[in-house]
Amino acid sequence: MEINQLQAFDMVTRQGSFSKAARALDISQPTISLRIRALEEAVGGILFVRGGTRLELTELGTSFLPYARQALSALATGTEIVRQTKQGARGRVSLATLPAMTTGFVSSAIARFKASYPQVDLNIHTNHSDQILEMLYDDLVKLGLLNWPLFSPISLTPLLHFREPLVVVAHPAHPLAQRESLTSLDVVREGNPYWQVDWETETRSWHTHLIGAEQALTALPIHTAHDLVVRGIGVALLARPLVTDDLAAGRLVELPVQDLPAFARESALVCLSRERQHLSNATRNFIDVLREEGRMFIYPE
């Protein structure tokens, strides 16, 4: 039993004659007759009552018709899914990222990708660096978003490299937001309080240098510090993508700290080096969307 036989059977049923079905399929009448005869041999009986002005289905043909159409529909659906998969419109994208990297341009990229490719399964996981490396190695995810550079026991290929500037922010009503010029020492001593976010070795050294032994220090996760500052409590050094919307909406202001070093959070979208040439089209489309959304922070290699 062949697909073209099922197509001939379906079209003859719809058109009511061999000649009309042949024209609809753009084949000769003898060809369509041969296909129907071969199909009847395959199913073991006559499918049409010959004679009269219009062909009628036999009892066997009536019983077989819904299954023939179901098979044709499944084939059409499968063919379309394969076509969409090749174009990246279907498939699966899997990413593991640090919890602190799920906002800003990353969340914008997720929303944009899902709107553009609604039929793609998108799976975003959060974990610590060691667990993300394990997930990549075990093929649980294809992509990882990690702090960079990173010592790794497995070979990784960076696909995108981001450099996000760190800025000191406060609520517009905070006393420091009324000042035209500040020093780093002003921020730490008058932040009331200054929330320490542990970004990297350089920022830790900066904190150690500025904060005296007699001064109490509160170290917080990134999102906790962000939430408190938006509520008008204290100031913090945060990544610009995290606060871009807050700055635009007036919920936060960037403080004019004149001697602030050019701190930045560096990260990279990575995959296993052995998988670089085998990423699906859907995954490549996601990378393109993330590149576009994060274009302001792309760090040239």
From TrEMBL:
Pfam families to which the protein is assigned, alphabetical: HTH_1 (PF00126), LysR_substrate (PF03466)
SUPFAM superfamilies in UniProt: Periplasmic binding protein-like II (SSF53850), Winged helix' DNA-binding domain (SSF46785)
Keywords: DNA-binding, Transcription, Transcription regulation
Lineage top rank: taxon: Bacteria
CDD domains per the UniProt record, alphabetical: PBP2_LTTR_substrate (cd05466)
InterPro entries recorded: LysR_HTH_N, LysR_subst-bd, WH-like_DNA-bd_sf, WH_DNA-bd_sf
Residue span(s) of domain HTH lysR-type: 1-58
Keyword Transcription regulation tagged: yes
Family matches, as Gene3D superfamilies: 3.40.190.290, Winged helix-like DNA-binding domain superfamily/Winged helix DNA-binding domain
GO molecular function, one term: transcription cis-regulatory region binding
Similarity remark: Belongs to the LysR transcriptional regulatory family.
PANTHER family found in the cross-reference section: HTH-TYPE TRANSCRIPTIONAL REGULATOR (PTHR30126), HTH-TYPE TRANSCRIPTIONAL REGULATOR GLTR (PTHR30126:SF40)
Name of protein: Transcriptional regulator, LysR family
Biological source species: Ktedonobacter racemifer DSM 44963
